[in-house]
Design goal:
Length: 111
């Protein structure tokens, strides 16, 4: 029987590949904002407004992501933060070049 980590990794990979935590049009807008540096990504799977003009957009993205993480966590019997961290790895891998990432050490790095 697979352990919880294997299940969560498979779940996150399938979810990212099959259904993004936001609408396709919003995903295009998100990629554009990430390329511009107005939006970054965080180690916990949430987006960060690096420019105040993107704050409302980021709030909407994060609401959708948090709901997805909570739903997946409930189904697997784990904490939503664990699911968010797994999704963060997939988000980072698929983000466009130029995207900024905020690590747990509170340091920004650019892809």
């Amino acid at each position: 029987m697979p352990d919880r980590r294997q299940v969560l990794t498979a779940l996150a990979t399938a979810a990212i590949a099959g259904a993004a935590p936001f609408r396709p049009a919003a995903a295009q807008d998100l990629d554009s904002l990430r390329r511009q540096g107005a939006v970054g990504e965080r180690y916990d799977g949430l987006a960060v407004a690096r420019d105040s003009s993107a704050a409302g957009f980021v709030d909407g993205v994060n609401r959708q992501r948090q709901k997805l993480y909570a739903d997946r966590a409930k189904a697997q019997g784990v904490d939503p933060t664990v699911v968010g961290q797994i999704f963060a790895k997939e988000i980072m891998a698929k983000a466009p070049s130029g995207t900024w990432f905020l690590g747990q050490d509170n340091q920004w790095v650019q892809k």
